Amino acid sequence: MSLKKLFKPKSIAVIGASTNPEKIGHQILKNIIDGGYKGDIYPVHPKADEILDLECHSSVTDIKGKVEMAVIVVPAKIVPSIIEECGKKNVKAAIVISSGFSEVGDKGAKLEKELAETAEEAGVRILGPNCQGINNTVQNVCATWPLTTKKGPISIIAQSGTIGAALECWAEEDNIGISKFAMLGNRADIDETKLLEFFSKDRTTDVIALYLEGVKNGRKFFEVAKEASEKKKIVVLKGGRSEKGAEAVLTHTRSLAGEYKVFKSVCKQAGLILVESINELYDVCKGIAGLPKPKGKNTIILTSSGGSGILAADAAEDLDLNLMDLPEKSIKRLKKKLPSECIIQNPIDLTGSATAEMYDEAIKVLARYKDVHSIVIIVGDPMPGISDVIKERFERLTLVPVMLGGGKEEVEEKKKLQEEGIPVFSTPENAMKALSTL
């Protein structure tokens, strides 16, 4: 059965909708409304007459209209019976937000097994339990929290709601946005492989961010991931790499973390991009989504911070980027255009007295040479006007902006770039990693 009803439902029932604004059942209902969802919304609450100006229903079976997807926020012990009712109502997909299943031990695992069996019998695909829901900005379906609505090219699959939500929020703050988000939870039915397959066929998704703690079916995951990576860039962060981390995974979503060396090898064979931190996961996805693709590996670093230039150079070597020698003619031109204190080699260090005009002059010179495939622009000081310099040439060159240590001026210049959808990086290392994936 397709996952279309989960992400593109024509009607939604929120079972366990609450009149209390502090409860998740209220917040999800409000986010669906405030997110601009166009279909029918049915709050289900046995005692309330209405919530948020919508008529309430005592159960899903009492709803007169058709229900394509349900969001379930009720105590764990009654979830199987609710799924049974959903089956009778011909609901095709359900998100089980409720916790209290396999993550709490054997008793919960037994209940989760009952839930999975009930869902299969009822013909209802379920995401979760113990999950944070989904977001589809393209269809205005924010059946999760917090509310994010900025449309963009990144889709997220996460085994942690907080990590997934952080990626969503960062993408919205940076004016990049997301296409879709799904929090896996305990994976009683829909798992990472099914979502990866679905997202790989999604026309509004360019890059998939994947946070995993364990893989449910290793061989199937490898087969699907290999095929999916031919259509989309897939960036993976694995939790539970250490012994203690693997123990924590068991108590989080009851997954087996698995041997990290094996996972790393599988990712490499499948063509996935493996990262080591949540910031790197986001920055690499942001770079893939927003940077023009370079024609090759030849890279020049242009910096006002010697130390940041060194870190970028180290990262370039680790990532197999070619930190090229400057073309002979460019050296003469640069020496003519720039003050004598500038260090004309790669990295080009404009020193602490750098100005936006100096960056502009250097970029104009370097842009003349076809062998220069990308320029990493590191701004390590407050610098009025640098955003205009980058914006002017961003479409014609692969420019990778890095801003750090610039105080309020940095915030303002960064915002000007973000308003144009130009990604700005906060560390030289993550900028180089993003560039290397392109």
Major sheet details: 7 strands, mixed
Strand content: 15-25%
**Rg over C-alpha atoms, rounded to the nearest angstrom:** 25 Å
Number of helices: 16
* Helix content class: 25-40%
CATH superfamily (homologous) name of the largest domain: Succinyl-CoA synthetase domains
Structural class assignment: alpha/beta
The outline comes out as: elongated
Mean pLDDT, to the nearest integer, reads 94
pLDDT under 50 segments (min length 5)? Answer: none
- Which architecture name of the largest domain does CATH use? 3-Layer(aba) Sandwich
CATH class of the largest domain: Alpha Beta
Q: What is the CATH topology of the largest domain? A: Rossmann fold
User: What's the number of structural domains?
Assistant: 3
Overall strand count: 19
| Cα distance spanning the termini | 34 Å
Widest sheet, order of strands:
9-8-11-10-12-13-14
Write the layout of secondary structure elements.
Layout: H1 4-7, E1 11-15, H2 24-34, E2 40-44, E3 50-51, E4 54-55, E5 69-72, H3 79-88, E6 93-96, H4 106-122, E7 125-127, E8 133-136, E9 141-144, E10 151-158, H5 161-173, E11 178-183, H6 192-200, E12 207-212, H7 218-228, E13 233-238, H8 243-253, H9 260-270, E14 273-275, H10 278-290, E15 298-303, H11 306-318, E16 322-323, H12 328-337, E17 348-349, H13 356-366, E18 374-379, H14 386-393, E19 398-403, H15 407-419, H16 428-437
Parallel strand pairs: 1-2, 1-5, 5-6, 6-7, 10-11, 10-12, 12-13, 13-14, 15-16, 15-17, 15-18, 18-19
Antiparallel strand pairs: 3-4, 8-9, 8-11
Helix pairs in contact: 3-4, 6-7, 7-9, 10-16, 11-16, 12-13, 13-14, 14-15
